[in-house]
Amino acid sequence: MQKLLTLLLLACTCIGYSQSITLKGKVSDPDNFPLEAATVYLTTAKDSTMIDYTITNKNGNWELKTRAITQPVFLKISFVGFADHKQKFETLAESKDFGTIKMADRSTNLNEVVIEGETPPIRVKADTLEFNASSFKVRPDASVEALLKQLPGVEIDEEGKITVNGKEVNQILVNGKPFFDKDGKIAIQNLPAEIINKVQVSDTKTKKEELSGDKASGNNASINLTIDEDKNKGFFGRAMAGYGSSERYESSALVNYFKGARKISLLASSNNINSTGFSMNEIFDNMGGGRNMNVWTSDDGGFNINGMQFGGGKGITLSNIIGLNYADEWVKGFDGSANYFFTSANTDNNNRTREVNYLPLRETAVGSGIFVDDSYVLNSQTVTKNDKYAHNFNTEFNVKIDSTTTIYVAPKFSKANSMVKNTTSQASRRLSDDTLLNDREGLFLNENDNTAFNNSFVFSKVLGKSKRSIDVWMDNEIKEDEGSELNKSNTNKYNYDAEGNVTIEADNRDQIRYNRQKTDSHVFAVEFTQPIPDSLEVRLGLTYTMYKNTEDRNGYNFDVATGRYSAYNDLLSNSLESKRNAIRPTAGFRVNKGKIWAYVEGGPRITKFDNNGTYLGQNYAVNKNYILPFLQAGMNYSFTKSKSLWIGGNYEVEFPLARQILEIADVTDPLNTVIGNAELDPEKYYNLHFNFRNYDYATRSGYNIYAGGNYYDSSVRNFTEIDNSAVSTTTYTNVSGTFTTWFGVNWSKSIKREAHTFKASIGVNGNYNGDKGFQNEQLYNSKSLRVSPRLNLTYEYGELLTINPSYNFTYSDTKFTNYVIDRADNFVHRLNLQTTSYWPKHIVFGNDFGYTYNSQLGSGLKKDFFLWNSSIGYNFYNDRLLFKVKVYDLLNQNLATSRTISATRITDEENVVLKRYVMFSLTFKLNKFGEKKADEGNRFWWF
């Protein structure tokens, strides 16, 4: 590792000593008004190969540092709405000031324009940042993910989260349509970069905002990948199969057919290495560094498809996926897409947990002054088998009736089944003297069938030339769950008298409970927009919500006489119903003038909240009416086209569940009885957040600062009483004054000199939370702080070598008031180094080496480990076949241990994890497109 870091330092030093020149100037319109965000770039005169580029600042100034050029080149300037500027130079061997360059007028719409001829590397439009894919050099077989990493301002972290200039990307589309799913992970990891024409970044809009032409009210970004015209007709894909030691295997296939607006894709995968199996990464496809981190964090880097988790998590998973995606435009103004997924996952896990539960001191007798610490330690071992499968069918259709009317419909269907089998052995002992309090051994089997239908409908109509509009939308969800819970357990509770004599209370169960739950949720809304001169809009709206949830539970004991679960158990049986009808009239306004865009919307939330239940022949009812405020507001101030400030806030209300508000006892668990509280109020809280972003495309550097928080007027917390045998009774209560906050700062910079590219990213993020709760009628307070700084460096030498060291430190500290302990802290170090080499030709060789240290794991759990993954591949048959050998966990040290600190307990946990295996695989690549262009586009040229 030391040698590689030394090589990285020497390479960066060489960059600094390269002979360079500085080119600068100013760009203005014909009236001498400075043009901000004009693209200035250099190309070779011979074949228009890209050399370097920059972007003008708010004053129209630009500066470009590049190597001395000794052959003919073009200086080109592009700005939306003006004719391209082009100037030829035989050489550019010395620094030069070009003065003010005035762009020539061009009759066009400033917001939407197509300039014939060459496309600049970056184009900043009114609300879209557009990258020309061919201007950013990647390997011929690279994925879209590799292309995104080359774009200025784009960051992809170890867990796959994408940010653009500090704004998180939550939607990725291909030619404006989802590619299997809108989060885009399948698209960026599997589509080849060579088919992409443009990468367009804009603010993510809701469907209503998209159809009505509104500004985005959220604070996320959306990426749209447009396909190159000559690659939008043909087949492409790949298939892979591998087998290795310890009976590990993997296989996957993805085949795509594109023809204009029609896109058909088929994928399939099967493996038992905790992976989806879909990645074009030749080195770290299914064993990358992101999965090294998950053994320590809840953000385990897993992959979610239609609600089913793959990879990451606990245990070892065998997963199978089959998917089909279809998108087309059947006639002008009528297009749609559909996808089907079958997913299954079978997970096996062995879990070992040590949980320290802290309790307030107990006075032995009133006024005695003698206190006892009843805190206890729960040790458990659990063997889990989790089998699940799901069918998902998702569609969406857009109908443009005319230039003023659009309809959007998106029905979705799903059918899922899950079975979880736990075999558990556990014991609780008093922390102070190791006295046994209770123990349990049991078999628990839960099965569930789920059927769901969801639909979204949006109607948008512009009324007349004044841009007055009306929007109608509906969201519907109908869901039904049927399941069973089998409990075969033996529980013992140990009670001690004053002399220490023990009385054992046994609770042996062999019972099953059948559950049926149905949810109907319908939201209807209408909004009228009236534009007013001077960039102001007034909005009036009405939203009506109907929600109904019913639960029927019927319990049975095992009847020896019949050999079946036929003896009805009243204690386990109950029925619950919760209904909520709400109407919300709103009024608000939006301003879009100059650099400011802002909105405010508010009104009353009038809610009828009815809850009914039946238990042990008794009826329970809690019916309440509420009039609560609704308020949301946001503002975006653009200092320049690459520097902005976003501030947003709202007031939220969340209603409790029927089981939380009806005083019906749930005695399913003999060690914890749960009862609702009829006096429970909804959760009510304020949310405020901001994000400041500043990215300088000229220097390829930028930073962002963000923070936010929720302050609760009323939050729902457990009110728990725990007896001398560590048996608890839990209800719910409202507390005020709790809060959650989050914050972060990130900075990144990229330097490119000839074939050398150096990237640095530094950041820190964290949380500060205040919580309250009750243990044995005593109110406690906790304040928790988590701070996590990180450093990520990347050095690339052309297409031959990549070196990527990174370091992350996480510190957690929780302080308690009015509690048996006053503090608990923990820190974790994570160090990682990835190297990838594409030399010699046809050979790919990679290493992923990581070290993790956790400071405060309990006794018997190893605090640190190394994880080293290595892979070598050989491309042959015109690079259409790849033979690869990879070794996961080369040192055989991988661990899955963690520590979790909460307000009342500290939990140390160990789970089964993938250990060392070697895998041999063969990958076949298929690319068959239409006729290629004579000119493949502008790629960076190394002088």
For this entry, give a set of tags.
943 residues, mainly beta, Immunoglobulin-like, 31-stranded mixed beta sheet, eight-stranded mixed beta sheet, globular, disordered N terminus
* Largest sheet, strands/sense/barrel: 31 strands, mixed
What proportion of the residues form beta strands (DSSP E)? Answer: over 45%
The radius of gyration is 31 Å
Number of helices: 6
Principal-axes shape call: globular
Low-confidence stretches: 1-5, 13-17, 109-116, 288-303, 932-943
Mean pLDDT: 88
Distance between the termini: 30 Å
Structural class: mainly beta
* Strand elements, count: 50
Roughly how much helix do the residues carry, as a percent range? under 10%
